[in-house]
Amino acid sequence: MTNGPWIDIAPPEDATGDLKRAYEKIGATRGRIPEIRAVMAGEPLVVEGFAYFYPDNNYACGSIDRRLAEMIAIVTSVANGSKFGGPAHAKLLADVTGDGGFAASLLQDYTRAGLDAKERTLLDYVWKLSRAPGEMTRADIDGLRSAGWTDPQIVATVHVCAFFAYMNRVAEAFGLTTG
């Protein structure tokens, strides 16, 4: 079997209608159409809807910084078992922070990455939400608040975690690789 994607994608030059509009939105912010977006071309409105979530605008979140958003993406991806998401976001985190070792340590085992207590509490929450969403309780939110996280930061964390749970499944379903 060949490397992904395992589904036909529409190159930007062949896009028409809704897909062309979606690709134009993505191209305006990214300068290119990432493969993770192109594999969804069969549903142009989905592509367009997700055009608003990209790394440079911090996945549409203003209450957390890019470093933290990428940390959440890594932990979510590892918890989801994604071979695409974890490495892709570890690279983005290394680019953002200039610290490839820290990004690699999060990818390997976030619990041993030397996080402060506040960040560790948040990433433990992300791990639980990713692995056992039906087991979430009010106590989980209260624990985040006690650690110093604000409600907008908690909302952003859930958004980034849920967004990457979705994107991990898209990547894995269509055989995308980071290579």
Care to describe what's here?
This protein has 179 residues and is an all-alpha fold. The chain has helices spanning 17-30, 35-38, 44-50, 66-79, 85-97, 100-109, 117-131, 138-146, 151-173. The protein is built from nine helices and no strands. The mean pLDDT is 93.
N/C terminus separation: 16 Å
Please write the string of helix (H) and strand (E) elements: HHHHHHHHH
Number of strands: 0
The 3D shape can be described as globular
Describe the largest sheet. none
Structure described in brief:
The chain has 179 residues and is an all-alpha fold. The chain has nine helices and no strands.
Q: Which key phrases capture this entry?
A:
single chain, 61% helix, 9 helices, globular, 179 residues, 0% strand, mainly alpha
